[in-house]
Amino acid sequence: MSEVVAPEAPDRSRLDPVPFALAAFAVVGVVLWVVGFVSHHFLPPDTLVRQSEFFFTGDNVIGQWVKFDAGWYRLIAEQGYSFESIDRQAPVAFFPAYPLLMRWVGVVLGGQPFVAGVLITVAAGAGAVVLFATWCRERLSSPAVRWSVVALVVYPYAFFMFGAVYADALFLVAAVGAFVLLERDHPVLAGLAGAVATATRPVGFAVVIGLVVLAVARRGGWRRLRAADAGVLLSVGGLAAWMTYLWVNFGDPLVFSKIQRAWGQESNPATWFKFDLFDRVRALACHARGFLGGSAPTCGPDYGSELLYTLGILLQGALVVAALVAVPWIIRRFGVTYGIYTAAAVAPALLGSQDFQGSGRYLLAAFPLFALVGAACERRPAWGRVAVALSAVLLVAFTSFFARGYYVS
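Below the sequence we write its predicted structure tokens.
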């Protein structure tokens, strides 16, 4: 197997992209922290009150980042895992790497898992942006690298890298780190980084696939593989350890998948074909007719937050479709490995959500997409500036909504 790469070789005579990556992360981070803080304390919350407010030491400073799944992560960090039935929500739905880090760092901080979670996310987010810039440097010119970094940090759902107590930033730094390490001929370290990814989120299988394909491609075929290349198989270790734990303690190594039905996300045609999304779109059309003065039938709840939810999942669905359409371009620009990885990373967003909710943050895992955007912005900077400005506006808005308890992604 051989890689398909772009015909032009990137210019190597350029500055280290790390300072720019760190500066971009810091600038965007400061803006989002201010937006989140003001929104959390001074703007009205979601009218549906989808979640209970968390009260803890430090809430006045970081409460904007502690929403929704953060409660599950704290439960795991403090009490471990439990399970009763696949029909009842339980902590076993959440992979262990992030909450275990919250436990260990929280102990160092004197028993503050939420504070630990915010710090872990910020550190992982910064590391992910730096590693992404390093990965881009081997493929793109300096201007394109900068565009790519900006595309990542102003992505509308990038706030999950800047403090939100979710596992996405940890997964991203482990995934990008695994590929960077393998490209620098460190297969064992790459496998260990991959193991962190597979212990962090279900989409970790995409990292395993990508590392194996890259290992083969680097050697020019299966028959040329070296013994050390088997180190990439360590990436399976995180998932294997997690499934073994579930088997020993709860009698089912796949319970993390089966329990998704308790969230209405079981694997069936209703989820694959997004029946819930179509119902919401019909309701949205009904409300639109009523707004325009037509004789609309009963549309169901007309809460503003429900309408925002519907618009949000439509945006996320459009991003998933765009990501899949971009895969051939990724193959041409960055090689077969990263096209396969991107497709595998996007697949759960397409097949595992009943209405595309959550797909916005899931797409953070598909980091080659942001490099492709950066390369496009370099070619057409005027369009790039418009795209970045629009994305930045959405990022600020979504950060504000998240801080106020809206279920953004």
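The radius of gyration is 21 Å.
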